[in-house]
Design goal:
seven-stranded parallel sheet; 25 strands; alpha/beta; ten-stranded mixed sheet; 41% helix
Length: 699
């Protein structure tokens, strides 16, 4: 069939199906839910951000090969009954973009009478399994899984076109989400519209395909989420769990509601059912059985709804009433919903503040909260936004986020807690929160005390104008604290400062949050010095100008072969020029993964001369067992003792001498390495912050 005929058939089926479903919906769901379904068809989709959908060209058959492993981790089971053209498109997609994971592909033929029988044996690597007799979709799936060899099994309809990365995204979810039992893909129509991002079940067993005909990039549908069920067109689960549950319940033979029943059984066994929108699969809905529920196999959908509703009546009683319109507020009604307002989404590979925020979000999700992130710049940040969505964060952005005020007017009432990050964001948003989220606890995250950092920088520069700016910042920052319910600080030193400046403010301490990575390479296998820090932060620029310009030459005079690795985004040209005149200085700029520098470089330096808060660069090194030489400012509020956990020096000669001493002294190096690991575990780990996070966000 040519693509033009296929497109015409799809459009006709869609219109007929919409008309029939609308009539049925009016009777069963009422006018509000029906109108919501109809009006999405009048909306133009925004231009997609990512690559266009991959749709294989409908070429004449010629032999080809598909991925195949003799020791598969994943088995892809594709039940078929005729429609060989769709089966070929599905297999060609798997061949064109093979998954990274070792897999096998089984086509389970349930009695086809077309060219399936002639062509499938010619596909190299394919396990073509022919059933003895036609038994229907459920029996074909159960039979196919029984013949599979993988640790995980994927049920994949033959009228699907899996998109690049789909399988690896499904599998990754099981390692990321404790208790994951069944994970489904986001299903798309061939024209790019969303077919389903998980399903919603109402009290009578009727279903709602969440997001149908809308944009797959809409924030409501783009994040990992617990769902009532996922369509069996593309789902993954552990083979052991499938066997434990007995596969698809044969009371639904030949088809329909078996996938919904399986999802409920998975949840009843104590596991989670999730949709992973990072896994995208195009599905030509209705290829096998059409869309008319009044006749043919499709009629079993109506019958089996009653069977399903009777079996799961007690569970369905807790589901939304018929006529409800699914929304984020409704779907997350049983969770504590936490909103985070910041200028941009965190980029944990670029700065310590982002890493702290990212790990805080992880902690909230692991505690069962639903986290919503709204960047006030309204920008989709690409990979950092998608990383949050893979965690399960509902991230909003333009064009779906038209403005902060209108968005809060619609969504504000659902939040128990709203955290505003940085004082200028809080100043702008506090009036909106008072109007649109009056019941929410207002949490102000300072990141660091801006006025304290600005004042110290002004004093170092001897600039009276900067000092006046710092005073204005102090006024604004303290006003935000007075209007907030809780102010979150990162440093105990800052808490002491606020006891003087604003003694009535309710303060909580959530410092930098790090995983304790371990010791890395031993002393004798490490070389050189390293600094990590973004250069949009003025204290980092000043620190490198001082260290490269005044300190490093003193170190190299005693250690002539030593090199200094300067890592961080947005390096100013003046720093490049300064480094060009200093032998041994390597300016790397942004490095996506800095682990190698933490694990293989002997010493980290933190030569900050002004600033505030807690220095993530110090925590990061210590979390990898890398000792640090720092200034007094850099170790402020970090529970560090000079000579025991860190070496501290504030003038160029003393700083250089401390570096040389530590570089040469293996015993001292090992003592500081072990002490740094303990310090992170005791004060800056996720475990250390658990109680405060619970008190601020979850009570």
């Amino acid at each position: 069939m040519s693509m033009s005929l296929a497109d015409a058939r799809y459009f006709l089926n869609r219109m007929i199906g919409l008309f029939r479903r609308s009539l049925a919906s009016l009777r069963t769901r009422g006018w509000q839910a029906t109108w919501q379904r109809i009006r999405v068809h009048t909306r133009a989709l925004p231009a997609p951000r990512g690559a266009p959908l991959y749709l294989p060209e409908a070429l004449p058959f010629a032999p080809f090969s598909v991925p195949n492993s003799v020791e598969p981790r994943v088995s892809i089971v594709i039940p078929v009954y005729n429609h060989v053209g769709h089966t070929l498109a599905c297999l060609r997609a798997l061949a064109a973009h093979p998954p990274q994971v070792a897999c096998e592909i089984l086509v389970v033929d349930d009695g086809s009478a077309d060219q399936t029988v002639q062509w499938m044996p010619q596909v190299q690597g394919l396990r073509y399994e022919v059933r003895a007799s036609n038994g229907g979709f459920i029996e074909a799936c159960n039979d196919g899984v029984a013949r599979s060899r993988g640790t995980y099994v994927v049920l994949l309809n033959n009228d699907t076109v899996p998109q690049p990365g789909w399988l690896d995204a499904l599998l990754e979810t099981f390692s990321m989400v404790p208790g994951a039992g069944l994970v489904g893909a986001q299903l798309l129509y061939p024209d790019g519209r969303l077919q389903e991002s998980g399903g919603v079940l109402f009290q009578d067993g009727s279903a709602w395909s969440y997001g149908r005909f809308e944009s797959p990039e809409d924030p409501r549908y783009s994040a990992l989420r617990d769902v009532d069920y996922c369509s069996g067109a593309a789902v993954m689960l552990p083979r052991a769990l499938w066997d434990q549950l007995g596969g698809f319940d044969t009371r639904y033979r030949p088809a329909y509601y078996e996938d919904t029943d399986l999802a409920f059984a998975v949840r009843a066994s104590g596991h989670r059912v999730l949709v992973q929108p990072a896994s995208r699969v195009v599905h030509d809905e209705g290829t096998s059985n059409g869309t008319d529920t009044q006749s043919g196999i499709k009629a079993y959908q109506v019958r089996n709804r009653g069977v399903f509703a009777a079996k799961w009546a007690a569970v369905l009683a807790r589901h939304p009433a018929v006529g409800s319109v699914p929304s984020p507020a409704l779907l997350h009604r049983h969770q504590r919903q936490v909103l985070i307002l910041d200028e941009v989404v965190p980029q944990p590979d670029r700065d310590s503040g982002s890493l702290r925020q990212y790990n805080l979000i992880r902690m909230l999700i692991e505690a069962g909260a639903h986290v919503v992130f709204v960047p006030t710049r309204r920008e989709h940040a690409g990979a950092p936004t998608e990383a949050l969505q893979r965690l399960g964060v509902e991230v909003w952005y333009a064009p779906f986020l038209e403005g902060i005020g209108p968005w809060l007017r619609e969504h504000g009432p659902r939040f128990a807690v709203v955290m505003m990050v940085r004082h200028h964001v809080a100043s702008e948003c506090l009036p909106l929160l008072r109007s649109y989220a009056p019941a929410a606890r207002r949490v102000f995250d300072t990141v660091d005390l801006h006025y304290l950092r600005e004042r110290r920088g002004a004093e170092l520069a001897g600039d009276a104008g900067l000092l006046r700016n710092a005073q204005r910042t102090r006024t604004r920052e303290l006003a935000v604290m007075a209007a907030s319910d809780v102010t979150v600080l990162v440093s105990d030193a800052e808490r002491t400062q606020l006891q003087v400046d604003a003694p009535d403010v309710h303060v909580e301490l959530i410092s930098n949050l790090h995983e304790v990575a371990g010791g890395g390479a031993p002393w004798d296998q490490r070389r050189d010095l390293v600094f990590v820090g973004g250069f949009r932060h003025p204290p980092n620029v000043d620190a490198m100008q001082w260290f490269i310009g005044e300190v490093f030459a003193r170190i190299r005079a005693q250690l002539p072969d030593i090199r200094f690795h300067c890592i961080g985004a947005d390096v100013p040209q003046a720093l490049h020029d300064l480094a060009a005149g200093q032998p041994g200085v390597l300016i790397h700029g942004f490095v996506p993964v800095v682990t190698g520098y933490m694990d293989e470089v002997r010493i980290a330096v933190a030569p900050l001369r002004f600033g505030a808060g807690v220095k993530g660069k110090v925590n990061l090194s210590m979390a990898h067992g890398q000792p640090v030489v720092a200034t007094t400012c850099a170790v402020e509020g970090m529970h560090l003792r000079d000579g025991e956990d860190v070496l501290v020096a504030d003038d160029a000669d003393a700083f250089a001498d401390a570096v040389v001493r530590l570089y040469r002294d293996e015993t001292l190096w090992q003592r500081l390495s072990a002490a740094g690991l303990r310090n992170v575990a005791d004060h800056f780990s996720l475990d250390a912050a658990q109680e405060t996070v619970r008190r601020v966000f979850l009570e």
